[in-house]
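>> received
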Amino acid sequence: MKPFVLFAFIIIAGTLSCNLFSDKKDSSDTITIKSTDTIRLTKDSIITPPITYSIPAGFFQGMLPCKGCEGIQQTIFFETDNTFKMEELNWGAKLPARKQSGRWEKKGDTILLYFNKTIISKFRFKGDSLYTVYRDGKMIDGSEMQQYVLIRKPSGTANDAWRQKGEQGIDFYAIGNEPFWNIEIDNERMILFKISDLEKPVIVPIEKPRIFRDSTVYLIPDSNKLRITILNEFCSDGMSDFLYEQKVQVQYKGQLYKGCGMYLTSARN
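>> returned
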């Protein structure tokens, strides 16, 4: 009996030893792998978080304080090629908008505007807003900064309908109200002018425009003196938050129609 009991004890002890060894090994591997991976991911995400600032492409607009007027409406259009166009309109004063253009540069969260090689404005870029910190040769302190804020405004090209026109080969598109009208200019084929009061659109062959410093003019004498003037001035359609790069005036059969437009392709003549 003793040899049999001893043999059985050896077998049971060996089995328990193997099970204990196996459990310890699996448990150790699992804990090590999970804890190491978790610590590595957490540590990386905390120590090296991504820091990114988007560029201020498109329109920004705000109303700035003014001495002697109701306010200064400042509008800036930032191009992706690091150029900008700016207009400042004094509300309550019968003066034309002050226009300026140049190039812009981003340094961290600061936007710099240059005219030639001189810095004319500095902004702190936060989210969809520009906070003025330097203007007209003066620093804007923290207590005044809330009065010098420009908010991002959607551009007309963000409208799906306008983007589709560009994809169809339309070089310039404009709209107006009261009555509703729109115009399409294809620099290779034709000009199409629609008015809600007319049953059929006016379609004429393209004519070479007259290009001036502040405007582009299409004159079609054979179609009841259709004249289209594209002004290089920012424009709001009055019905939405969209802003456009050009004001448009259309003269047709003695009537003047006013609206907003934008070049949809690189062709600007």
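>> The domain at 58-153 is CATH 2.40.128.640 (Lipocalin).
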